[in-house]
């Protein structure tokens, strides 16, 4: 299945006369628009959306079992969804966080699935620029929920990272 992620807006496409502040606002506006498009696209998938996030059927089953066994009910899920919705209304949600990455002093590990559109190539490059020492591990054939798709390998990776 191909990626449904929208094509990112590349910095080279922006007018070179724009000020840094204008570029920052444009990036935030673009991020909002892309987020809205992502939510709309995911909604269009309906029940099949889980296949986009987690291509592996067995992993989807494990996630469904965890959700079903969760010690809270629909009200808690609704509140979580409401909270997520409010987060995206916060202007800081879409602001570039690269400066904050540069201030980190702890070692960094990013775990991602090869089939996940997040983070984008541009976001990975920003991380590499801000944190050249960061470890980036990509799990082949995995989607958004690497920890559910490859739990043992993911746990081993995190344990090894923390012990190092």
Automatic annotation (TrEMBL):
Keywords: Hydrolase
Any GO MF annotation of the entry: hydrolase activity
Lineage top rank: taxon: Bacteria
Position of the signal peptide: none
Region (Disordered): 1-25
AB hydrolase-1 domain: residues covered: 47-156
Protein's name in the database: Alpha/beta hydrolase family protein
Organism of provenance: Paractinoplanes atraurantiacus
């Amino acid at each position: 299945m191909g990626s449904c992620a929208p094509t990112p807006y590349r910095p080279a496409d922006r007018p070179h006369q724009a000020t840094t502040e204008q570029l920052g606002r444009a990036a935030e506006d673009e991020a909002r628009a892309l987020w809205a498009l992502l939510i709309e696209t995911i909604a269009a998938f309906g029940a099949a959306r889980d296949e986009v996030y987690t291509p592996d059927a067995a992993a989807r089953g494990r996630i469904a079992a965890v959700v079903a066994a969760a010690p809270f009910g629909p009200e808690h899920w609704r509140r979580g969804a409401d909270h997520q919705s409010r987060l995206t209304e916060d202007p800081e949600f879409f602001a570039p966080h690269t400066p904050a990455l540069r201030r980190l002093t702890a070692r960094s590990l990013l775990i991602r699935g090869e089939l996940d559109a997040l983070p984008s190539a541009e976001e990975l490059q920003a991380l590499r620029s801000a944190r050249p020492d960061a470890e980036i591990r990509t799990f082949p054939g995995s989607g958004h929920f690497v920890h559910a798709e490859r739990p043992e390998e993911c746990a081993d990776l995190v344990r090894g990272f923390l012990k190092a």
